[in-house]
Amino acid sequence: MADNRTLEIGSIGWIDLTVPDAPAVRDFYQAVTGWGVKEVGMEDNGVAYSDFAMQTEGGISVAGVCHARGANTGIPAQWLIYIVIADLKASLEKVTSMGGKVLHGPRSMGPSKFAIIQDPAGACCALFQVDEDAPGS
């Protein structure tokens, strides 16, 4: 999650992009937007690699560029918003009962958890349940 974002229920807590060639896409957005980069250590079957937190000139993380591997395999290659919700299980039940689909997850992100959904019109987003003890929650 971003360094300075509110994690209030209903807010957009984060955005990221998961792609097969994360370094090339990182370089593209760094050149186009002026974002800086902070490496985020990851692991896939014992192999270490880095995803990337894209940062403002002041060093505030505002977005992520991630590899489509390991736990991120199968995530759509599109900018994905993470909407902060109160109860992931209850929200996912509503997704399916109202004609949407759960595409990925639920899975943990540190002490918090998320799932990627598709609404009935085909648009995707992530639902993010913040751990109550997380900073800014």
Q: What's the oligomerization state?
A: single chain
How many separate structural domains?
1
Helical/strand content category? alpha+beta
Strand order of the largest sheet: 2-3-4-1-5-8-7-6
How much is the radius of gyration in Å? 15 Å
Helix content: 10-25%
What would you note in describing this structure?
With 137 residues, the chain is of the alpha+beta class. It has one domain (12-129): 2,3-Dihydroxybiphenyl 1,2-Dioxygenase, domain 1. Helix content is 16%, strand content 45%. The protein has helices at residues 22-33, 88-97, and strands at 12-19, 36-44, 47-55, 61-67, 80-85, 101-109, 112-118, 124-129. An 8-stranded mixed beta sheet has the order 2-3-4-1-5-8-7-6, covered by helices on one side. The longest helix has 12 residues, at 22-33. The mean pLDDT is 90.
What's the quick description here?
Helix content is 16%, strand content 45%. The protein has 2 helices and 8 strands, in the order βαββββαβββ. The radius of gyration is 15 Å and the shape is globular.
Features of this protein?
2 helices; 2,3-Dihydroxybiphenyl 1,2-Dioxygenase, domain 1; alpha+beta; 137 residues; 8-stranded mixed β-sheet; globular
